[in-house]
């Protein structure tokens, strides 16, 4: 499994939990620095961000991917739209949650959400 990480680097505990949840090894984590220039359009910035991953059109369509999206919602939405266009489906994403009463603040992997399944189930309700 290839993990595209558009947020903070994963801790060892987070990597262990991800391995458990995906039921297999993490092949590689691509940490993509996600800092946007507020003067540029976010659409153009997301395209530049995606190009940093370095996958070919064929790899986008065939590589098993898991995405840890950025926390800024407009960027996350644009990123998912761009990924869907390149992959042909919505990827699964990592959801982190704060660890209660941790000092300094820390986060744990809460779940993996399969967005394509969410989409397919939602279509049945229209």
How would you briefly describe this protein structure?
The protein is globular and about 40 Å long.
Task: Characterise the protein shown here.
There is one protein chain. By secondary structure, the chain is of the alpha/beta class. It is built from five helices and five strands. Helix 2 packs across helix 4. The N and C termini lie far apart (33 Å). The model has no long low-confidence stretch (mean pLDDT 95).
Number of strands: 5
Report the uncertain regions. Answer: none
Could you tell me the mean pLDDT? Answer: 95
Task: Report the radius of gyration as a whole number of Å.
Answer: 15 Å
Number of helical elements:
5
Tell me, briefly, the overall form: globular
Sheet having the most strands: 5 strands, mixed
- How would you write the strand order of the largest sheet? 2-1-3-4-5
End-to-end Cα distance? 33 Å
Count structural domains: 1
Order of helices and strands: EHEHHEHEEH
Structural class: alpha/beta
Specify the helix fraction band. 40-55%
What percent strand? 15-25%
How do the strands and helices of this protein lay out in sequence?
Blueprint: E1 2-5, H1 12-22, E2 28-31, H2 42-51, H3 57-62, E3 65-68, H4 73-87, E4 92-98, E5 107-114, H5 115-123
Parallel strand pairs: 1-2, 1-3, 3-4
Antiparallel strand pairs: 4-5
Helix pairs in contact: 2-4
List keywords for this structure.
5 helices, five-stranded mixed beta sheet, 126 residues, single chain, alpha/beta
């Amino acid at each position: 499994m290839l993990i595209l990480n558009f947020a903070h680097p994963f801790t060892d505990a987070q990597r262990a939990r991800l391995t458990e949840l995906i039921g297999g090894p993490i092949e590689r984590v691509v940490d993509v620095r996600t800092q946007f220039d507020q003067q540029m359009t976010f659409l153009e910035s997301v395209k530049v961000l995606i190009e940093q991953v370095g996958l070919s059109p064929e790899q986008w369509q065939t590589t098993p991917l898991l995405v840890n999206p950025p926390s800024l919602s407009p960027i996350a939405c644009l990123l998912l739209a761009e990924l869907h266009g390149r992959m042909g489906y919505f990827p699964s994403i990592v959801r982190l949650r704060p660890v209660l009463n941790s000092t300094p603040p820390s986060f744990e992997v809460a779940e993996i959400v399969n967005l394509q399944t969410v989409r397919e189930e939602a279509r049945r309700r229209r």
